[in-house]
Each structure stands twice: as C-alpha cells, then as structure tokens.
Sequence to fold (696 residues):
Amino acid sequence: MLARNLTLVLFVVLVAVTLAITVWASRQNKTAADFYDGGRSFSGFQNGMAIGGDYMSAASFLGIAGMIALSGYDGFLYSIGFLVAWLVALLLVAELMRNSGRYTMGDVLAFRMRQRPVRTAASVSTIVVSIFYLLAQMVGAGSLVALLLGIKEGQTFLGMGPETAKVVTIVIIGVLMIAYVVIGGMKGTTYVQIVKAFMLMLGALLMTLLVFAAFKFNLSDLLSSAAQKSGKGQAFLEPGLKYGRELDSPLRTMVSKLDLISLGMALVLGTAGLPHILIRFYTVPNSKAARKSVVWAIGIIGTFYLMTLALGFGAAALVGGKAITSQDPSGNTAAPQLAAELGKRYFGGEFGGALMLAIIAAVAFATILAVVAGLTLASSSSLAHDLYANVIKRGKSDERQEVRVARVAAFAIGAVAIVLAVFARSLNVAFLVALAFAIAASANLPAILFSLFWKRFNTRGALWGIYGGLVAAVLLVLLSPVMWGGASDTQPPAALNEKSAAACGVPVTSKAVANPTALISCTAVAPVPFQNPGLLSIPIGFLCAAVGALTSREQDKGKFAELEVRALTGANAH
Amino acid sequence: MHPTFMAVEMSEEQSQGRYEEVQASPEFAGLRRALRRFVFPVTVAFLSWYGLYVVLSAFARDFMGTKVFAEVNVALVFGLLQFASTFLIAWWYASYAGRRLDPAAGRIRAELEEEESADARA
Fold:
C-alpha cells in the first residue's frame, strides 16, 4: 500500500515536471523548423541522450531484464542485436541523412525522385511502422502500470479494478503524448527524452551497483547463484532456452533456429530504418554533431544493455524465477521486484523497499512516455510534411499552415492509437515491436541505402522497395504462428492451462495448440512456420527495390549530383 | 512569368550544373572514395561478425556452453565481445572521419558556398 502511494506520487511529479518542460520549450518555438527539428540546435551529447531516450523502450528495460531473469542468456541475444544495429545508422545513414534531408524520412527518399508517389509511400511506411510500435508500447503500458501499482485480479485501487486501470492508463498516456507533441513539438519531446534517459541510466546504475554489492563484486558468484535460483541450472547461462530451442524433431528444431536468425536480422537492420529514430538526426547543426550524437547514443545504449544483464541475472538470483512468474508470467515485473528487494536490503526494510520500487516504477513510466511521444511526433510530421504539404498541396503550402496540420495530425494519430490500444488491451501484441523492426528493415532501409549510394536508383525502385518490403513483412506475419496457433510438423504443441484451454475451446490435455495466444485461431495451422518475417522479407525488400530501379529508365543525374554533394559535404544543408 | 521567379529558376539550374561539376571533380571523388573505403568493408565485417555470433548461438550450443573460467562461458564472452567491437568501431569511425573526411568535406563546402555568395553579390 505504501509502495503504491509512493509510486502514484512520483508518477504525478513526473507528469508535472515533463509538462512544465514542454510548456517552457513551447515558448521558444517560433518557426515551423522549431516544431519539426527543434531549430537544429541540440548538441551531439544532448541528441545522443535523446536518441537513447527515444530508443530504449519499456520493452527493452522491463522486457529484456525480465527475459534475462526468466530465460537467462537468450535475453542478452536481443539486446546485442539492438546495439550492433547502431553501427548501420552511424556508418551508412546518420550524417548523410542529416545533410540532405530536412524534417522527415520522405525528404531524403524523394530527393531525386518524383515527389508525390515517393512521399506517399514514405508516409505510409512511416505511419504503419510508428502506429504498430505505438500500439505495442501503449498496450504494454496498460498492463505494466496496473502491475507497477500492484492492482491484481479482484482488487480495486481508487475504485478501479485491473481492467479499468488498464483503460485509464492507456488514455492518460495517450493524452500526455499528444500534449508533449502538440505543445512542445520536437524541442519539448527532445527534453522529455533527455530527462527520461538520465532517469533510466541513474536508476539502472544504482540497481546494478547494489546487485554487484550483494555478491561482493564477484561476477562468477552472481552467475552461479542466478543459474541455481532460476531452477534451470547451467542451461540458464547458455543460449537456447527461449530462442532456437532444441525440440523433439529435427524439422521443428531447424524452424525454431531459423526463426532466431530471422529475428536477429530484423533487429540489426531495422534500427536504421525506424522513422522516429531517423528524424532525430535532423535536430543537430551539422554532420559532425550527428556523428557525435550516434557515438554518444552507442555508449549510452550499450552501457544500459550491459546493466540490464546484471539486473536480469540479479533478479534471477535475488528474487527467483518462481516469485517473478507468480507476479507476471512474461517477467515484466522482474526489475521492479528486484528494486524492492534491493531497497529492503540496503535502505532500511519495508520503507526502503517501497521507495526503490516506486522510483523504478516512475523510471519505467517516464520510459514509456518518452518513446510514445517520439513515435507520435514522427508520424504526425510525416503526415503534415510529406502527405499534406508535398502531396496534397504540391509543395505550395505555407509553413505555419503545415505546422497547424502537424498538430491536428498528432491529435488524430494519438486518438486512433488510444482507441486501438483500448480494444487490443488484452491481446498479446508483443509481436508488433518485432514486426515494426522487420518493416523498417524490409521497406525503409533498402530505399534509404539505395537512395544515398546508388546512382541508378529511381522512383520505381523506391516505390517497389517500400511497398514490396512492407507488404511482404505484413503478409508473412498474417500467415504466421502469431495469427494461427495450431500445432504441426513445425510447431510443437504447448502445455495448456485451464484458462488458455477454455479460450481456445479445447480440453486441457489437447495437443492441437502450439500458440494459445494466437490472434485469429489457436487450432488452425499457420501456412508460414516463422514468427519473424525478416529472413524472407528483408531480401524481398532489397530485391524489389533493385529490380524496380533496373526496369525503369528514369534517372535524374543532376539531382543525384546535388544529393551526393550535399550529403557528403553538408553544403547548403537546411 | 514574373521576373524574380525566372531569376530563381535560372539560379537553380546553374547551381545544379555546379553540383555536377563538383561531383566530377577529383577532390570530391577522393572524398567519396575515402568514405566508401571505410564504411563498406567495415559494415560487411561487423555484420558478418554479428551473423557468426547469432549462427553460433543457434547451431553451436556445446561450443557456446564451454566454460572459459569459473562460471563464465564462451557465449557470455562472445556476447561481451560484440559490445566491445561495437564501441571500438564507433570510436574508430569517429576518429577516421575527423581526420580523413571532415577536412575535405569542409574545403569543398567552403568553395561551393563562397561561390554562391559571390554570385549573390553580383
């Protein structure tokens, strides 16, 4: 009860502080550029922090820590993909984009192409990726806040049961993200992300130090104790508990392993195609600052993922697998539970535990807010700048009007996201994050790289690449075990409990169900055996882009010269 | 057509021609070569290195489970090496770009912008 009240107080303080920052930032916004790119005035370090704040979602804080706590080493596999991906952004994308674009991903893709079709495609892809990612964050946030406040089935808090609390949380988060974007624009959103990154790093650092202190700074002790308490023994420290599992038939094993490789590809190639990340490169004054900001981001994000390793193993060792799954079967509460345990040990019993729990809960809440604000900003910028100003108005609208449209778009996108998230609140939508990465890697990355580096690239190549990669990724997921949960030669049957068996309409002993949370049917067999589309959709995206470009004779040499010279030298950058 | 509008269009065409000249210049070709000579091979290298890690995690479980010292196994060392290589490549690229790319880019940019402001004065 104490922890709950403390958590609530910190949530309110956090909301008040971030809103105050937003209003302060809005006073400094004068022009359209200020709304979209914060006046390009952030330093490399500031933008590096903001990139960290934009990128490290609740899924990567609570989710990866939980995954490590429950499945051991395999959670680490996830975070390595998320980090290595930044080298693609650093070496191939960040500086060239900063120099040649202005406000959106579409600016660079449409630079030497026919404006209207390419901007439309860029906008469609931006909005699809951002909405999928947004939905995953908001649905996750709904259950997360209910968990953090400790509202369990059958309990009420402020007169709300867990279901009502979820809906209320989703609506509050939605309203806040709209407020940050509409009032503060890029500048406000950036400061919210910087504050969040500071909080996240400090919180994680404090917990990591306490975990190591608990094991007298002996890594080996931490590892062996985690393996022992996890109930999984040595396997806990090796790959294979969650991804690429050894199953009862060679075919099932092979499918499971290829799925792991597919996930790895999407993680490492997706980051440099995420629109909400790409627009962050526009907020700095020159390419050197863009480079510095990515180097800072790599340092911050890498350090953070190293700390999640300690947090995950610490939670396994100090809280224990059983205590974690009893709170949340997917392990999202591992980090908060670890915080409570550490607080109890080091900061004087119950009160210390409650305080640490409240602090980490507030950090998680800030994490969610910063990420959803970045996503809303990216999609509303693209709607206003690509679709409205350049497709509908054919580049002849004035900037003030454009910004007004961007604000209305932020409202509209926020409202749609709230409604969708409320309806989807009890579905298993975690796959949407992986899908967003897969679309970014299959649809956006080929078009971006070919635009920047390949002289022969043209309008048809960009369109085929974007739509081909997008459709391939979405279609593969629609045909995957995420949607169709039946057991088959490739999908091993899952152990069911009363609740999941009832939801699927089969007896508990049934061997017909592989994925009881499948969205369309849990007994029909999926036509495509992979959960992650990347292995197929990324090559398809690159192939479509290349074939499209080669079959069209269009080529604007003058515009390519302008793009290349500007991208490499920074001449006449906005 | 409105006279000022024509002037704008003229200068846009001129500047486009100017970009093509710069693009064809040996100095720019050198800058492009310096960029590509670094980023393409390094990208292939770190993607292969990461790919090797993922493939070993999927298919070489026994090797990854081998203990190196105490409780620390190959999988953990390999994972930590991915972090180390990422940090190292980021630092390496930043220093390479500062030395080999920024000065050349700065010279070409200064030339271009100087000409333009000269044009504007004329």
